[in-house]
Amino acid sequence: MTTAHQDCCADAHDHNLTPAQARHHILDAINPLTTLERLALREGLDRVLGAAMVSPVNVPSHTNSAMDGYALAATDLPSQDHVDLVMVGTALAGLPFSGRCEQGQCVRIMTGACLPEGTDTVVIQERVERLADGRIRIGAGGHSGQNIRQAGEDIKTGDIVLSPGQRLTAADIGIIASLGIGEIDVIRRPRVAFFSTGDELRSIGQSLRDGDVYDSNRYSLYSMLKRLNVDLLDLGVVADQPELLRKVLLDAAATCDVVITSGGVSVGDADYIKPLLQEMGTMSFWKIAMKPGRPLVFGHLDKAAFFGLPGNPVAVMVTFYQFVLPALLRLSGQHPQAAFTFTARSRHAIRKRAGRCEFQRGILQSTGHGQWQVTSAGHQGSGILTSMSRANCFILLDETCDGIKPGDLVEVQPFAGLI
Ligand code: AMP
Ligand code: MG
Question: Which among 146, 380, 395, 400 has most CB atoms closer than 10 A?
Answer without folding.
Answer: 395
